[in-house]
Write a structure and sequence with these properties.
Radius of gyration: 16 Å
Number of strands: 7
CATH architecture: Sandwich
Strand content: 25-35%
Number of domains: 1
CATH topology: Jelly Rolls
Helix content: 25-40%
């Protein structure tokens, strides 16, 4: 469950736990959001940088900017931001762990919350 309209949640630990419990030692994990107003991204978990992410998302697709879709749901900015971010990431599994870079984390990005969201995790190995 997300708590704000636009929110960035670090889901790395939950993914790591899923990989460990799967027993897969070498393979891939795909993380997919099943919602067209959210995204999955990989980047650094540093609080000022996360604030910068929110700022740039807001400037790229400002809320209430006269989008056609707003006449239906009033959330076109959320859809446009999701288009920029993308809905999935695939991460290698090496020695039973996520093979992320030193500063990398995996984030679920809520763009039209608060909502009850689900993420689909597929582990192949």
């Amino acid at each position: 469950m997300t708590s704000r309209r636009v929110e960035i949640l670090d889901i790395t630990k939950q993914l790591e736990e899923e990989v460990i419990s799967s027993g897969v030692r070498e393979g891939l994990v795909n993380v997919f959001t099943r919602h067209s107003t959210s995204g999955i991204v990989i980047n650094e978990n540093e609080s000022r940088l996360l604030g910068d992410f929110l700022r740039i998302l807001n400037s790229l697709a400002p809320e209430g900017d006269g989008y056609g879709h707003d006449t239906i749901d009033n959330n076109a900015d959320s859809h446009l931001r999701a288009l920029i971010l993308g809905g999935s990431q695939t991460i290698p599994i090496t020695d039973g762990r996520l093979d992320l870079g030193t500063w990398q984390s995996v984030f679920f990005v809520e763009l039209d919350g608060p909502r009850n969201r689900t993420v689909k995790i597929t582990i192949i190995g």
